[in-house]
Write the structure tokens for this entry.
Amino acid sequence: MNDPEKERLDDLGQRIDQVRKGAEEHGTIPEEHEQTLADPDADGEVEPHEAQPPG
């Protein structure tokens, strides 16, 4: 029997890998992911230690 939670996590991991690979190939990050990367705790504020330099 397959564990649905494990399958979901595996799928998310694959999607993350695809986004990361695309970003490396094109030197960009899709717009929908930029906020998550800039604000990892998603509190609506980007603290100085969270800010990522462009490029």
About this structure: The chain has a mean pLDDT of 71. The two ends are 44 Å apart (CA to CA). The longest helix spans residues 4-26. The CA atoms of residues 36 and 43 lie 10 Å apart.
